[in-house]
Amino acid sequence: MPLILVIDDDRSVQHLVTQALKPLKAEVLTAQSADDGLAQIRERSPEVVLLDILLPETSGLELYRRVYDLDPKLPIIFITSVSSGETAIEAIKLGAYDYIHKPLDVEQLRDKVQQAVEIRRLMHEPVVLPDAGTEPHEGDLLVGNSPEMMEVYKGIGRVAPQDVTVLIRGESGTGKELVARAIYQHSRRANGPFLAINCAAIPEGLLESELFGHEKGAFSGAVTTRIGKFEQCDGGTIFLDEIGDMSPMLQSKVLRLLQERQFERVGGNKTIRVNVRIIAATHRDLENMPEEKFRSDLYYRLNGFVITLPPVRDRGDDLLILIDHFLKRFNRELAKQVQGLSPEALNLMMRYGWPGNVRELQSILRQAMLQSTGPVLIADFLPGDVRSGRRRNGGAAPEAGADLNRFIRERLEADSKDLYAESIEFLESALIRRVLTATGGNQSRASEILGIARGSLRNKIRSLGISIDRVVSDSEDEAD
Ligand SMILES: Nc1ncnc2c1ncn2[C@@H]1O[C@H](COP(=O)(O)OP(=O)(O)OP(=O)(O)O)[C@@H](O)[C@H]1O
């Protein structure tokens, strides 16, 4: 339950905030003076503070500085009136999270508080890299020790202390946000601010102003100047999630920021210089997007350091480790005593393609555990998609990327008598599909890469029953 503190001498504001935040199931603390507010911050450690900018005796800005000294990463939302708008801008420049005008709009208040709670979680909740199998007492553990995940941990370790831009790639739910947080927390900017923007979630027209701010009167509705996230995050780290969904016009503004560290607010002509580290993420295949969708110069600029998260179906036995990890966690959280999965349930989980990756695994296990009554989780509690053995992610991809170990294990369980030939065929099929995906179905290019004659590639494609159209359309689906 989030803990929110309101510091305002006006009891009607305290009451309104308490009522407004009820749907968030938040506990709301109230303070009428600066001293009371500071005392509660020390004693109760709220997650977000709503602070009246016009407090009697102390100015809100002065109190902000004192709160900042106590906890520089505590998100503060100022409650302002139109007449105190300039002070609010000042506060944002000093690093306050946001501000909201009186009379308070309940929906807007709820949204801002929710976002602030999330930002606090991203900044404070530690991401722990695996270390000799110990489970941390707090925070999120990055689970898995497949070679692909080892590369990810190595990448985080290598890039975090360097002050460079990072691009995190991977399908939805593979842990890109977790990796971004880990980089931030292990960086030299760990004590500075961290802000996250999902570029796909904000309408195109609003994103520019959200990121770069705007001047008063820049467009109808711009009644006051607004400080954008880049300016607010000066000295810190910004996580641009789903950067592949950003419009080309904004891409060029981001490119300039990366190259020259400067920009102008919307409708402004004053050049503003900032020092922000960008961590970007995408599930899209940026290099194969047409120029009018994603600028290649930005792609090359972002591509300096890339961390690629593999899909769960390509992580081999990591799936078992992830299942074990979430079983333990949900046993704790849901007060259950599930010890494991029945062989049938486990087999179905291993065969499933996990298109939603770790996030989907988490939610399926949680749902199943909520329903389970005994110590063993049986297949009946798994959703239809998993039970039906459908792979849901387009047919070719799991086969192309599937794990050899898992294949061998399944064939051993099936008591195969031709495992050598079956495994070679499996490998050949996966390899050829993968290379054809990379070349967009171009067989000449694929035969060059593979180092085999075009004729023998054609024969293999035929004998292995590979459909070029299918491979290409599946790779396009993945990019969508
Ligand atoms: N290796 C991992 N170990 C433990 N938990 C993980 C791992 N990877 C992801 N998770 C968990 O899975 C969920 C999804 O992760 P996250 O939000 O980082 O994915 P994402 O790639 O950013 O997703 P999207 O592209 O949809 O935004 C989170 O709850 C995260 O904590």
Write up what this structure looks like.
Helix 1 links the parallel strand 1 (3-7) and strand 2 (27-31). Helices cover 48% and strands 13% of the residues. The two termini are 36 Å apart. The protein has 480 residues and is an alpha/beta fold. The longest helix has 20 residues, at 419-438. The chain folds into four domains: 3-115, Response regulator (Rossmann fold), CATH 3.40.50.2300; 127-308, Rossmann fold, CATH 3.40.50.300; 312-387, Helicase, Ruva Protein, domain 3, CATH 1.10.8.60; 396-479, Homeodomain-like (Arc Repressor Mutant, subunit A). It binds adenosine-5'-triphosphate. Residues 140, 142-144, 170, 172-178, 241, 283, 358-359, 362 line the site of adenosine-5'-triphosphate (ATP).
Write the layout of secondary structure elements.
Blueprint: E1 3-7, H1 11-20, E2 27-31, H2 34-44, E3 48-52, H3 60-70, E4 76-80, H4 85-94, E5 98-101, H5 106-124, E6 127-128, E7 140-141, H6 147-159, E8 166-169, H7 176-185, E9 194-198, H8 204-212, H9 229-232, E10 237-241, H10 248-260, E11 262-264, E12 271-273, E13 277-282, H11 296-302, E14 306-308, H12 318-334, E15 340-341, H13 343-351, H14 357-371, E16 376-377, H15 384-387, H16 396-401, H17 404-413, H18 419-438, H19 443-450, H20 454-463, H21 468-479
Parallel strand pairs: 1-2, 1-3, 3-4, 4-5, 6-7, 8-13, 8-14, 9-10, 10-13, 15-16
Antiparallel strand pairs: 11-12
Helix pairs in contact: 2-3, 12-14, 17-18, 18-19, 18-21
The protein binds adenosine-5'-triphosphate.
